[in-house]
Design a protein that fits this description.
It contains 5 helices and 5 strands. By secondary structure, it is an alpha/beta fold. A 5-stranded mixed sheet has the order 3-2-1-4-5. It catalyses: Endonucleolytic cleavage at a junction such as a reciprocal single-stranded crossover between two homologous DNA duplexes (Holliday junction).
Length: 159
């Protein structure tokens, strides 16, 4: 089962692609889609759409998993996340892929076993579980890998 995990944002969208085979999780690729701050919103969203489409075409995941928008005191951040989620949903729909969404709480519970886990605890667990040399950077990349792992774990496929 090939899983594309996404941590959406208009400035940075993290992605992580994992392949689960029997009792092993293989890291296929991970990184961040970064848009310059001087780009217009339309240009940023168009770039995000193009890059997500390219990931879907290149890796042909079985499932796409994305962090769900959560209540955020910063309205500007919440709107930005919502806009990028909409673009991702469109790209996934047009590529006829299934999408599943997790809340940050669900990801934390799945990866660390504690709903109030810190970002550093999640990053450490991602590094350890996936046998990575370093914690993936930027943070959005580690979050995307955590989201993909959470989906694998939610399927009752713990390693």
């Amino acid at each position: 089962m090939k899983v594309l995990g996404l941590d959406p944002g208009t400035a940075i969208t993290g992605f992580g692609i994992l392949n689960k085979e029997e009792d092993y999780i293989n890291v296929i690729d991970y990184g961040a889609l970064i848009t310059p701050s001087n780009w217009s919103l339309g240009r940023r969203l168009n770039y995000l759409y193009d890059q997500i489409s390219a990931l879907l075409e290149s890796y042909d995941p079985d499932i796409v998993v994305m962090e769900n928008i959560f209540f955020n005191k910063n309205v500007k951040t919440a709107i930005s996340i919502g806009q990028s989620q909409g673009i991702i949903l469109l790209a996934v729909y047009q590529h006829q892929k299934e999408i599943f969404m997790f809340s940050p709480l669900e990801v934390k519970l799945s990866i660390v076993g504690y709903g109030r886990a810190s970002k550093s605890q999640i990053q450490y667990m991602v590094k350890e579980v996936l046998n990575l040399k370093d914690i993936p950077k930027p943070d959005d990349t580690a979050d995307a890998l955590a989201i993909a792992l959470a989906y694998i774990y939610s399927r009752g496929e713990n390693i």
